Amino acid sequence: MAAIAVPNRRTSSAIAGAARVLQRNLLVYRRTWRGSVFGSFLTPLLYLTAMGIGLGSLIASGGSTVLGGVDYLHFLGPGILASSCMQTASFESTYPIMGKISWRRNYEAILATPLQVHHLLIGELSWIAFRMLSMSSAFLFVLTVFGIPRSPLALLAIPAAMLTGLAFAAPIIAFAATRHNDSGFAALFRFVVNPLFLFSGTFFPVSQLPDAIEWVAAATPLYHGVALVRGAVLDTMPATWPLHLAYLLVFLGVTAVIAERLLRRRLVK
Amino acid sequence: MPPGEEILVHARDLTKRFSGFTAVDRVNFDVRTGEAFGFLGPNGAGKTSTMKMIACSSPVTDGDLSVIGMDPRTQAAQIKARLGVVPQTDNLDAELTVLENLLMYARYFDIPMSVARPRAADLLAFMQLSERAKDQVEPLSGGMKRRLTIARALINEPELLILDEPTTGLDPQARHLLWERLYRLKQRGATLIITTHYMDEAEQLCDRLVVMDKAKIVAEGSPRELIERYSTREVLELRVPEAVRAGLMERLDGLAERIEELPDRYLLYAADGEQALEQVHAREIPTESALVRRATLEDVFLRLTGRSLVE
């Protein structure tokens, strides 16, 4: 009995501790949510209008076999949803985390209490998951206004998009934990996040790329996230969906363990 | 409340090594319940590293340490639940208000809101911050931020309050208000551990203290004991015309227990400074100015840790 009780108590304390860190971020968000919610609706609206309708009207319908039998607006919408989650999650994992490590030293203050490094990490990931949840819900609403989702299966795009965001958040938090100033973040966005945005199947199918680049794209979480989100929204879930899902879960798990180690190395000396 | 006999912090051969250098080198000390215990020393002496080990935020490299009867290696979270920590530089949550800083911190300790709210209100009143409860942290003065940081450290009603240079950078008014509040905490029975390089602060607040230098403890005792042991009751400070300086040490010989020659003046450590001054005049040594004062911890400190600048 006791042997079972101990790990249970540990699990519940990990959740309770992480919940405090999440609660803190929500307390701050109470003052700033309007701007971010507005952005959550505006971003899809702008992309879908400019690129989906504007650019999409120039793309010959002959392309639709490559696009999986849909017009460009339908192809693009779910791709942008996954990509937006990647971008927001990436941003949330850079400057705000660095600020809490070294500029404002929130983590130092929190670690003087009974909370520990893994509470910080799980709490921040929960916070980012919450942001992904609200963002992708708003996004899906806008997609629905454009008439893009084909079935209630589209709701699965929300957890898929959240998972995509988290698969970027964990490694980028790990990266932030090793940084002593913010100069690496500009490079991260320029050389990693933005190229992925362009080449991971958001704007065109990865199969259009040379094989070598196609393999690189397939190794990144965004490719798998786009595949799941698009499959859900368009009700064309590929038979390979368990592989995409497993890839994202393993990627998240491994990078979260690394992030915890690096945060600990940085914060506990 | 007089210091009890119960030992709250016990360190034997406590050591902290970072890659390449030893910050704390086999130090021994005991802190008793209800006392204010000071760590004095120049910058880099190892005070903050010792504090961080006691606060369980920095792992012990070697030696024994027990805090509130527990081992920081295995029971850090349980110890932290009963500590209050005031770090050297304020790390308040700049995105929360004054009151939210206290309430959120209470939540980190898993203190229910129903308990935290009245406690936070009491602490704000105690630290004279009630009017600023709804304000953001950033516009507060340095003294107010410091008081808020201390209030935050008290939110879990800690048995031991650890303050790392609590008044560094504050103006005299803010320092005196803080000292007075800390004194009141002590009267209520709180145990305080304080690091400082302000000697007046140590004399004001500490029942006992240790002087650290180059990672080791070089002296231990009450402020009065340390002054008696390492200094005389009084100090005569002499300034003399430049022409007189040559050979002056021989002429002053025998006038005091110890004489220190500084670039701008001479310090004569004597039980009776006035009497030493009379003898200076009797030996017809010309002086520009002469000041007799009581010996302070600063004299002890400088004697033990030297006058050279640590940078």
Give structural notes:
The complex is a heterodimer of chains A (269) and B (311). Chain A has one domain. In chain A, helix 6 (157-176) runs parallel beside helix 10. The model of chain A is unreliable at 1-7 (pLDDT under 50). Chain A has helices spanning 2-55, 72-92, 95-103, 106-111, 117-145, 157-176, 183-199, 211-219, 221-233, 241-267. Chain A is mostly helical and 269 residues long. Chain B is α/β, with parallel strands linked by helices and 311 residues long. Chain B folds into two domains: 7-228, P-loop containing nucleotide triphosphate hydrolases (Rossmann fold, 3-Layer(aba) Sandwich), CATH 3.40.50; 232-294, Alpha-Beta Plaits (2-Layer Sandwich). In chain B, the strands form three sheets. A six-stranded mixed beta sheet of chain B has the order 5-6-7-3-8-9, with helices on both faces. In chain B, strand 8 (208-213) and strand 9 form a beta hairpin. The mean pLDDT of chain B is 91.
Supply database-style keywords:
heterodimer, A: 269 residues, mainly alpha, disordered N terminus, B: 311 residues, alpha/beta, Rossmann fold, Alpha-Beta Plaits, 2 domains, 6-stranded mixed beta sheet, 4-stranded antiparallel beta sheet, 11 helices, 13 strands, 27% strand, elongated
